[in-house]
Design goal:
Helix content: 55-70%
Structural class: alpha/beta
Radius of gyration: 34 Å
CATH class of the largest domain: Mainly Alpha
CATH superfamily of the largest domain: ABC transporter type 1, transmembrane domain
Distance between the termini: 32 Å
Largest sheet: 5 strands, parallel
Order of helices and strands: HHHHHHHHHHHEEEHEEHEEHHHEHEHEHE
CATH topology of the largest domain: ABC transporter transmembrane region fold
Number of strands: 11
Strand content: 5-15%
Shape: elongated
Number of domains: 2
Oligomer: single chain
């Protein structure tokens, strides 16, 4: 892990890009947004009852009107304020529904995208970006409610001011221009530094995950000084970035807003007092205008404080876009329907002059050719684990070769739907023996609709799991932990093997040869897999001499 925070890559999106991403996020929620805005309009209209009531009260006292008018005005204001409170509650509920829908859509989007990311670009820590699914709606709520309410109530309040006297139109223009200038000019650099804060947070989070993954190694050595040093380096960079952001948003921007509020409020009193002195407005209108402007400036203070939320929304959208923009495998191919049915013809695997370079540029193998006939069992001997894993993923269609072509039944895998490839090919990765949180049945079947109970029973008998599962109190409904802590390594590998063969694919590709299974049981399983009675083709990419004795042919990967 690289602790050098200066090597962080920060790309600040344009305003149009931010707006496009924001529209993509909430574009499907226009109906709820319309409800939120309509509630804001109602709140803004009912909020006018306060300055208008103050205006009438001042006029009442000025002209010595009977006290019954006071009771009427107070009762009217009470009713309006209660209605305004009701609309605020309804608005809060609508926004909560919006947050829930956004979280749901992001969770579904992650679920669909994660299996499709290409292996050469995706790293496990990219999954941490799902944190944004919880944090983004929180910031969105803070921004949405305040910005909508401030905008609507501000427009209504400014309209009332203009109705009092045309000079207030100029005052409104100066107020809007000043607000826009303060929030943009003095907020420069806020988005970029917030992106840096976010990236440093993810880097620290990933480092703590590394500590958790390597906990036993660190626990068994005197490693605390190193751990603290790395953590301290990351935390110092994070704190410095937050301080810089605070200097921008809480410092220059907010301080200038406070100064602007003082001048704006004083200017309102001066303008209103002059209009009152020349008889262009009444005393009640002057007091009401003062209440309206006071509310507008209080809203400006709210907007300045909520700039944190607005900038965080833009930063969160940037993090999500970075993830979802990574290359993915195509879910559908242009000629998938033309392929011969593997159930009738089997799978003929061919590689022609295949070369593959790792992401770091290292050439793992060069001009490798191979042909596997339907039903043939072979082993490919590889000298290094890196080239072994890469070749297995290439043959399975999860990697694409740097040069050359890999075909199933004479069809280039680059032209075939990955979904189709998955149906006719099974892949077993000894180097990645992991399950997911769920039942034993779910871990084997993945709830694929084509799998019948007879298929599941056959796969469990094939892998010698049936009796062991029957011994569990809940049988197939036994809950499995993602790390397989309640199972042996042998059971985990056999569950993965059962998952691989339960659909009876016509091509089986193994990265390894079922190590960590008891020797006698492992040999039994290998013999079953390589039996001539099984119609599938089998490719073991391994350097295990025991497997070489069971297959029909051996190929050496140079």
């Amino acid at each position: 892990m690289n602790d050098n925070a200066s090597q962080l890559t920060i790309s600040t999106p344009s305003a149009w890009t931010i707006l496009a991403r924001f529209n993509l996020l909430i574009g499907l929620e226009r109906r709820i947004l319309a409800i939120v805005v309509s509630y804001a309009v109602a709140i803004g209209l009912f909020a006018l009852i306060v300055p208008l009531t103050v205006q009438e009260l001042v006029n009442t006292f000025a002209f010595a009107i009977q006290p019954i008018m006071i009771v009427t005005l107070v009762a009217t204001m009470l009713g309006a304020l209660l209605l305004m409170g009701t609309f605020r509650v309804l608005q809060g509920r609508a926004v909560e529904v919006l947050v829930q829908r956004i979280y749901t859509r992001l969770a579904i989007a992650f679920t669909e995208a994660l299996p499709r990311f290409r292996e050469n670009v995706f790293l496990p820590e990219h999954t941490n970006t799902f944190i944004e699914a919880e944090l983004l709606p929180r910031a969105l709520v803070a921004m949405l409610i305040d910005f909508v309410n401030v905008s609507v109530s501000g427009m209504i309040g400014m309209t009332i001011l203009v109705m009092y006297h045309p000079y207030f139109l100029g005052y409104n223009i100066l107020l809007i221009t000043g607000c826009a200038f303060l929030l943009t000019f003095f907020g420069r650099g806020g988005l970029q530094i917030t992106q840096r804060v976010s990236q440093l947070h993810y880097r620290t989070f990933h480092w703590l995950q590394d500590i958790g993954i390597n906990r036993l190694h660190f626990k068994s050595t005197d490693s605390l000084p190193l751990l603290l040093k790395k953590t301290d380096t990351l935390v110092q960079a994070y704190v410095l970035a937050r301080k810089t952001r605070s200097d921008i948003l809480s410092g220059a921007q907010y301080q200038s807003t406070v100064v602007f509020q003082a001048f704006a409020h004083s200017g309102m009193i001066g303008l209103g007092g002059w209009l009152l002195s020349v008889g262009d407005i009444t005393l009640g209108q002057f007091v009401a205008a003062e209440v309206i402007v006071g509310t507008l400036l209080l809203n400006l203070d709210t907007v300045a404080r909520r700039m944190y939320a607005a900038i965080y929304v833009a930063t969160s959208l940037q993090e999500l876009s970075t993830l979802f923009d990574m290359p993915k495998e195509e879910v559908s191919g242009p000629i998938a329907s033309w392929l011969p049915d593997p159930c009738e013809h089997g799978v003929r695997l061919t590689c022609k002059d295949v070369s593959f370079a790792a992401p770091d540029g290292q050439l793992l193998f060069n001009h490798f050719s191979l042909e596997v006939l339907p039903g043939e069992k072979i082993s490919v001997l590889s000298g290094t684990s890196r080239s072994k894993t890469s070749l297995a993923l290439l043959l399975a269609g999860l990697y694409h070769p740097t040069e050359g072509v890999i075909r199933y039944n004479d069809i280039d895998l680059r032209d075939v739907s990955l979904t189709y490839v998955n149906r006719c090919r099974g892949l077993m990765l000894d180097s990645h023996p992991t399950l997911f949180d769920g039942t034993l049945e779910e871990n084997v079947t993945l709830q694929r609709p084509s799998i019948q109970f007879e298929d599941l029973s056959w796969a469990l008998r094939f892998t010698e799991l049936e009796e062991e599962i029957d011994a569990f109190p809940r049988g197939l409904e036994t809950l499995v932990h993602g790390n397989g802590s309640n199972l042996t390594r042998s059971q985990v590998l056999r569950i993965l093997l059962a998952r691989m063969i339960v659909t009876r694919p016509q091509l089986l590709i193994f990265n390894g040869s079922l190590h960590n299974i008891e020797p006698a049981l492992r040999l039994t399983l290998l013999r079953r897999l390589c039996s001539k009675e099984e119609p599938w083709s089998v490719v073991f990419v391994s350097n295990d001499p025991e497997v070489s004795q069971l297959v029909e042919r051996r190929v050496v990967l140079d």
